[in-house]
Amino acid sequence: MKPRQKRIALIAGGLASLAIAAGLALNALDSNIALYVTPTEVAAGKAPQGKAFRIGGLVKEGTIKRQDMTVSFIITDTAKEIPVAYTGILPDLFRDGKGAVVQGRLGSDGVFAATEVLAKHDENYMPPEAKHAIDQAQKGKP
User: Taking Cα atoms as reference points, which of 69, 79, 125, 129 lies closest to residue 102?
Assistant: First the structure.
């Protein structure tokens, strides 16, 4: 093999290795990304099927029901409501009427099976996505 052919083979091998590494990194990122969807979009059928995503809004007053370690509640953007079931320990600040973002998957029965629940941390804060969803839902109301 001539020196020129060796250089070309080395460059081609390096580019192939770089392409494989980039492909693996993008695949890992794609499988860990959770899109944000509003309850109105979920009700309209725009939620990702078979993938994890996030829903944000307000916890509807009087809907928190506890049974052992499973908690069920309704999250709303004031226009549409999505029932949520979560098994685990909730954040201390999780309450009726307060902002929350839940991550998980939508079941075939229409209940959102949450794997993570995030609650607001003080009186003036709401996750930006949840605030935007509630504002958009209120604009759409007559």
Answer: 129
Contact criterion met (CB below 8 Å) for 102 and 75: yes
pLDDT tens sequence across 28-64: 877 666 678 888 888 888 887 778 888 888 899 999 9
Question: Residue 117 and residue 110: Cα distance in Å, rounded?
Answer: 18
SS3 of the chain: helix, strand, coil, percent, to 5: 35, 30, 35
CB 44 within 8 A of CB 55: no
The annotated binding site is made up of: 121, 125
At 42, give phi and psi (nearest 5°): -65, -45
Hey, which residues does 79 pair with through a beta bridge? none
> Is the separation of the CB atoms in 118 and 108 below 8 Å?
no
Question: 3-class SS at 71?
Answer: strand
pLDDT tens string 72-83: 999 988 888 999
Rama region for 48: left / alpha / beta (φ>0; ψ in -120 to 50; rest): beta
Per the annotation, binding residues for heme are 121, 125
74 touches 60 (CB < 8 A): yes
Give the predicted TM-score (pTM) of the model.
0.67
